[in-house]
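EI: anyone free to look at a 294-residue chain?
SC: sure, send it
EI:
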Amino acid sequence: MHAPRRGVAVAVSLCVCAVGVLVPTAVAGTSVSHESEPMDPPMVDGTKITWTYRGDSGKAFFEGGYKMAPNLQANVASIDCGQGGEQNPAGGPDGALECGYHPPVTEAAIVLTGKEPWFDVSKMIVLTPFTSYDDKGYEVYKPVTIKAPASDKLTKAEAGAAYLEAVKPVNDAITAYKAKAAAWTDKTKGTQAAKDGTDLDKALDAVVTELKKLKDQYEPAAKAIKAQIKAVKALQGDITAAGALNEGLDKAKFDKQLDDHIDKLSKASDKVRTKLGLPAPNAGQQQNGQPAGK
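SC: here you go
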């Protein structure tokens, strides 16, 4: 806002209007609480939030915008204030983003573009709209809540947590398997080698099931997860091949191939972790004597 503001807060009710359109109706008194009437919410579509402002009874306004939680505001990549609008990312009350109109307008569509899809950041978006009709004080309205549609899709944070839970048993099983394989000798029977790989084989089967689910639940990481599933299956092939130990299997060649497949799985894991916003510390883990993390 261009002129100094006194931070006027007026309670309001909201009327039913066209999709994405807010028509605030002032309620007398600033200390009286009023329930909002049913209304169509702002439109949330992927990385876009669109909300059309209209002044009371066609009244012109100088500023419009909305307050939101810090994690949502941090997701804002750009603001489109519409024709004649000037963005002010932290110019509203309490540092809220706003659009200014000089001369004032009676209607304006404000579009926020997010860095990430909005419902990936939060499945519940709460926006508190405000408007200035005199370029001096704000009228702050009741918060409006938009919930993500019912879905089995996960946010990035949820997908990351699910991933870490799914792969931990594999990390532990690889550590145990490598210790057993290191003790094999030229006299080790293939049946013993196959037995030693049972726990890891089961862990890999289980993680493939979880990764397939996660691939569908968080599409931005789907390609990377698909590549990791392929790397998991290559490692499972090594366990099967170990059953032929002392029946034509070259132990030195097997060890090299096992290390190679674990390394490839580690690199595939790094790519998935990056897509999920997780650290990709596999190189550091290997340097510290830990298994290639998944």
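EI: The chain has two domains: 12-147, 156-287.
SC: 👍
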